[in-house]
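Protocol step 4 of 5: obtain the predicted structure for the target chain.
Materials: sequence only (see below). No template structures provided, no constraints applied. The aim of this step is simply to have a reference model before the mutagenesis design in step 5. Sequence pasted as it appears in the construct record:
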Amino acid sequence: MRRPAGITIIAIVGLLLGALLALAELLIVFRGRWLVISEFSFGHALGGAVLAVIAALLIGTSIGLLLLEEWARILAIVLNAVHLVIAALGLFDALRNIHMPFFVGMMFRHIVMLVIGIWIIVYLISPRVKRAFGSTAPTAT
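Step 4 output (structure tokens):
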């Protein structure tokens, strides 16, 4: 079966986001090195390491999606579920800041993140996409 167009789009966006996160990680780490040594903190190292792990997960999962690997489909579902939790927490944080002038932008951003995350998960568990990945697990009727 041919790779569904939605999978290609999700994978390309994942590759682009992974590359941007890798660049951000490099900027954080190198910015820390350009500072006076006493100003380079554990936060720089931790922030860089977290971004590096997320970038590697995104890039690896995206490549796996392009190759129609079942593990990549499952990992994409898990990563999007984590993304949904983070977006929901961000939405609650936005509600806590209802008095702030940027409230509408925060709400809009987190709602869009939730909608995209839900769409990706629903898409990845659809029977057509499962067939494209060669998943032979029985589906409930």
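Step 4 remarks: The mean pLDDT is 84. The helical segments are 5-34, 42-66, 70-96, 103-124, 127-132.
Proceed to step 5.
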